[in-house]
Amino acid sequence: MMKNQYRFLARVIIEAKSPLNIGSGNRGIKSDSLVLRDVNGLPFIPGTTLAGLLRHALGKDNDRLMGSQQMGSPLIITEAKMLNCDGTVLDGILPQAQLNSPFLAHFRHLPIRQHAKIGHRGSTVNGGKFDEEIVLKGARFCFEMEMLSATDDDTDFKCLLNILASPTFRIGSGSRSGFGEVEVVDELCRYKKIDFSVAAQRNWYLQKSSSLSEEWKDAETIELDKKNEEGWTTYDLQLSPVDFMLFGSGLGNDKADMTFVRETFIDWSGDFAQVRDHESVVLIPASSVKGALSHRLAFHYNKLTKKFADTLADGESITDYTGKNNAAVKAIFGSEGDKGQDGKVQNKQRGRVLMSDIIEEASFSSKVLNHVSIDRFTGGAIDGALFDEETLYAKGYSFGMKLMVDNEAFIGNDLVKTAFEDALKDLCSGMLPLGGGVNRGNGCFEGTIKRNGELIYGNN
């Protein structure tokens, strides 16, 4: 008898429900952060990334399934390779003609997302401008998992697969800023249990190719549990613009000096993947929503704890109660920590709220608004102060946004939850505008809020 007589195998297909940022750790001429690419120049997800995420999700039980210094891991995970528009896996060295196809061209030249860190005064923090390359929403990846076992009980293996299907499972960096949401495509996934004592099953295992581009034969479909995880509070927002909105691209065009951001995504609703052109796609970055909510959360928490700028004690300043120094902001949105005297960063904390970018195909009209700064003394235009902005007019359209907050953020301080929900209510009442040009009337929304399916603000 073999020590590990059984093998549990799964071929998993995942789809990016929001853009992915699988960083390579390198910088380029056009971007501060480049996506990791394979030998074909296409994005891929390393097996070490997937294994690390599973280890973290398992918590205290991770050594038994993921291995330790004393015991090797019974789990084997391959890297995840991209799928072509026809659903075939792109594994191995591909011919140049295939790489030059219109579909793959979108992945050879990926979009770059612009970011700017905003301080408590509402302006950009010095050195807070950066950008990063991202993988398109809708991209699909395939990888395989294999577990060695001495028994035919595949409960642990199915547990790992269910983690992949969890709504809180994220891949890559920026998972707390709108990136990394994935969905397991059940109907395309396959599962196989191998008993080496059975000749037919043993031969199937020996003949199986290591290439992800070859289909499995005589394999079962996977049934996964996609229910929401316990320990999280879900807020469902329905947001409708009052009129104009402007989420800036950081670039201009032949019509305006400032334009709204556009981004391509992949649609798998048909038999083949379709590229939805950025000209017909609207994007509301979750990072913009996160930044606005963070500042308003600090405001409401300071109001509840009676921390006001004109009543601070001697030696205190407003910065002591904003950003990462604010208890509510740190509890929900995390902190990058502080450098100690030894130069090491301490008190780091990961954010406890998950949200995703809103990327939808929609038909909106754009409007170029002309602006000029007026000299208050002469009443004439200030030299060089004429500029234009191209905005979107989306009145009457409704956007859905989901925020999931780890309940640990609320433990021990009820005011954190109150302040956070007050900030959400400001967003849904037009009191917290989003995007650029908010002082010129852009970005006001109205809407409703549901907490775990129960309406807490607005009218259905």
Layout of SSEs?
Elements: E1 6-16, H1 47-58, H2 62-66, E2 75-77, E3 81-82, H3 96-99, H4 102-108, E4 112-118, E5 124-133, E6 140-149, H5 155-164, E7 182-184, E8 190-195, H6 199-207, E9 220-221, E10 232-241, E11 244-245, E12 265-267, E13 274-276, E14 281-284, H7 286-304, H8 327-333, E15 338-339, E16 345-346, E17 353-354, E18 358-361, E19 365-374, E20 381-393, E21 399-406, H9 414-428, E22 445-451, E23 454-457
Helix pairs in contact: 7-8, 7-9, 8-9
Structure keywords:
five-stranded antiparallel beta sheet, 28% strand, seven-stranded antiparallel beta sheet, alpha+beta, 460 residues
Brief overview:
The protein has helices at about 45-60, 60-65, 95-100, 100-110, 155-165, 200-205, 285-305, 325-335, 415-430; strands spanning about 5-15, 75, 80, 110-120, 125-135, 140-150, 180-185, 190-195, 220, 230-240, 245, 265, 275, 280-285, 340, 345, 355, 360, 365-375, 380-395, 400-405, 445-450, 455.
What does it look like?
The protein has 460 residues and is α+β, with helices and mostly antiparallel strands. Helices cover 19% and strands 28% of the residues. The protein folds into two domains: 6-22 and 36-109 and 135-221, no CATH class; 232-457, no CATH class. It is built from nine helices and 23 strands. Strands 1, 2, 3, 6, 7, 8 and 9 form a seven-stranded antiparallel β-sheet that branches. Strands 17-21-10-22-23 form a five-stranded antiparallel β-sheet, with helices on one face. A three-stranded antiparallel β-sheet has the order 11-20-19, with no helix packed on it. α7 (286-304) runs antiparallel to α8 (327-333).
